[in-house]
Design a protein that fits this description.
Elements (H helix, E strand, L loop, with lengths): L16 E5 L13 H16 L6 E3 L2 H8 L3 H11 L16 H5 L5 E5 L7 E4 L18 H7 L4 E5 H4 L8 H15 L4 E5 H8 L4 H8 L2 H6 E4 L6 E6 L8 H26 L4 H11 L4 E3 L2 E4 L7 E2 L2 E2 L3 E4 L7 E3 L3 E4 L6 E3 L10 H8 L3 H15 L25
Antiparallel strand pairs: 1-5, 2-4, 3-4, 6-8, 7-8, 9-10, 10-13, 11-12, 13-14, 15-16
Helix pairs in contact: 1-3, 7-8, 7-9, 13-14
Length: about 400
């Protein structure tokens, strides 16, 4: 099945990561690169991430690449050609079913910027259009993650612990650990149950023995613990901090608690930034409408249009709440009856567009909305211990106000 749309998460909040363009996976969550292509591409992303002042460009040298990835010079140059959209085939090379789409793909993932007899080979991570990803921002240094975000390209978080150990993960272990992380992000949960068949398909491997061997790799085990009984087709997986050895499940829960606390503080600060706080508006409303019934965060009062008449019983149906808008909002969508002929439902027709709670006081007391607003303001000023303003003289009025802003 296609992978779920990724949602912002807190799984790797305490784990240092590098950003890798999400072209690493297709729409079904399967790896698009394998073996040397995968290792070399991650190594290129590593170089681009470390060169913060080079606009996504990096110098590629063969000896450091051999030491970092564990592949031979010939394999690395062949992988570089493939990543530039020029895949090479040999008669002796066997290609798996999962690798065929990536070899046939001509879209470049890296772009050569310069190179030659007297110049170093300089490359850049490619955009969707096959151009250099570089963004020129004067003196401001930008990471690869920042550049991907700036131009709207999605990216995949890969722990630095893995990117710095590509040689140890050469081959199947790298594919297995990346697809394991992908499944955790798609859940999203640092502890999940994985299907072995699906996992093998995502990683581009066919044998159970290869999958089991990858789990036992020391670098994989530092980040991912897999519990599997012989003969079963599913395995329990849990991600850990590769250095501290603590479960990311606990870290994720703590991060979510911090995010909820931060959201609550932001809501409180937003409420304080309003001219009138939610608490002040609620106190004013209860002083004017003591019969209001409070249910959760809403107040229910008698609707001036339908009066809540249902089944010959009067019920307050106009909902008023003060956690939205500058001075609160209100609405009545009470069910009235069902037409016998057409079977259509009839709801309350009270038009609250351009009206706010103090309009109820204006309609009840037969005063203008401007005067009702002034009375509400004076009540809140007295509540704060301040001097109330002079009330306007009553005159002709209309209870409807402008649709934009606060109606007066």
């Amino acid at each position: 099945m296609p992978s779920k749309k990724r949602k912002p998460g807190k799984m790797f909040e305490k784990v240092p990561t590098y950003a890798v363009p999400d072209v690493l996976f297709d729409s079904f969550g399967y790896l698009t690169l394998h073996d040397a292509d995968l290792s070399v591409y991650l190594y290129c992303c590593l170089l681009a991430s470390k060169k913060r002042d080079e606009d996504g460009q990096f110098v590629f040298e063969i000896e450091p690449a051999k030491a970092a990835t564990g592949y031979s010079e010939r394999q690395i140059w062949r992988a570089l050609g493939s990543l530039q959209g020029n895949p090479q085939r040999t008669a002796a090379r066997t290609v798996s079913a999962q690798q065929k789409p990536s070899l046939a793909k001509k879209k470049p993932l890296i772009v050569k910027v310069s190179g030659g007899n007297f110049l170093k080979n300089t490359y850049s991570i490619s955009t969707e259009e096959g151009l250099c990803i570089g963004i020129y921002r004067g003196d401001k240094k930008e990471t690869l993650r920042g550049m991907l975000y700036s131009i709207g390209l999605g990216y995949f978080d890969v722990p630095c612990y893995l990117m710095d150990r590509l040689r140890e993960l050469k081959g199947a272990p790298l594919a297995v650990v990346l697809t394991g992380i992908k499944q955790a992000i798609d859940e999203p949960n640092a502890k999940f149950v994985a299907s072995l068949k699906e996992w093998k398909s995502m990683a581009g491997i066919t044998k159970d023995a290869v999958l089991h061997s990858a789990w036992e790799c020391e670098t994989v085990h530092d980040l991912m613990r897999v519990a599997h009984k012989k003969g079963q087709r599913r395995a329990g997986v849990e991600l850990f901090h590769p250095v501290r050895g603590t479960s990311l499940t606990r870290n994720m829960a703590e991060a979510m608690d911090r995010a909820a606390e931060k959201a609550a503080i932001s809501a409180y600060e937003a409420d304080r930034a309003r001219e009138y706080t939610q608490q002040e508006l609620e106190q004013w409303f209860l002083s004017e409408f003591p019969e209001a019934e409070k249910r959760d965060d809403e107040f229910y009062v008698d609707c001036p249009e339908c009066h809540g008449m249902r089944h010959e019983k009067r019920t307050p149906t106009l909902r008023v709440r003060f956690d939205k808008g500058a001075v609160g909002v209100m609405a009545c969508h009470a069910f009235i009856k069902r037409l016998k002929r057409s079977g259509d439902d009839v709801f309350c027709s009270f038009d609250t567009k351009g009206k706010v709670p103090y309009h109820l006081m204006a309609m009840r007391d037969r005063i203008s909305p401007r005067q009702a607003l002034q009375k509400m303001r004076n009540y809140i000023l007295v509540l704060r211990g301040e001097t109330p303003e002079e009330t306007e003289r009553e005159g002709a009025f209309s209870i409807s106000g402008p649709a934009d802003g606060i109606p007066i």
